[in-house]
Sequence to fold (114 residues):
Amino acid sequence: MDRFACLSALALFVAGSADTLAQDARLALGAKVFDTDCKTCHDTGKAKNDAPQLSETSEWKDRLGKGRAELYKNSIEGFSGYFAMPPRGGNPNLTDEEVKAAVDFLLYRAGLWQ
Ligand code: HEC
Fold:
């Protein structure tokens, strides 16, 4: 490997690790918010309350069809398609970033992280 190729490989490696770290941090935040504010309705085995469940890929894939920005918006402002998703999961103290991280976590667990 010549010096340039070697440096490029190193740059790619560093950039890749930074992406992974950012993703890990976001998912850790999302998991924490999910546990405190979303789990009551979105955890697995709660299908009877009509909220899309954690890891339910086909359900989340359909919803993601509206675009991630729409899912963020509906989680922050509340959404009532057929049932009721309360604004910020019912916790007005959550910041937009916390709610968005929880949405990302839900998508990640459904295998739909992009
Ligand atoms: C009180 C129960 C409840 C809580 C708590 C709750 N949700 Fe929901 N959520 C729902 C229901 C019910 C739906 C389905 C609404 C529909 O399709 O009409 C939903 C739908 C959603 C959707 C899909 C919206 C769309 O446009 O299709 C997202 C994303 C979501 N919730 C994220 C969250 C996040 C993030 C939290 C925690 C911060 C949370 N929810 C907390 C009940 C809840």
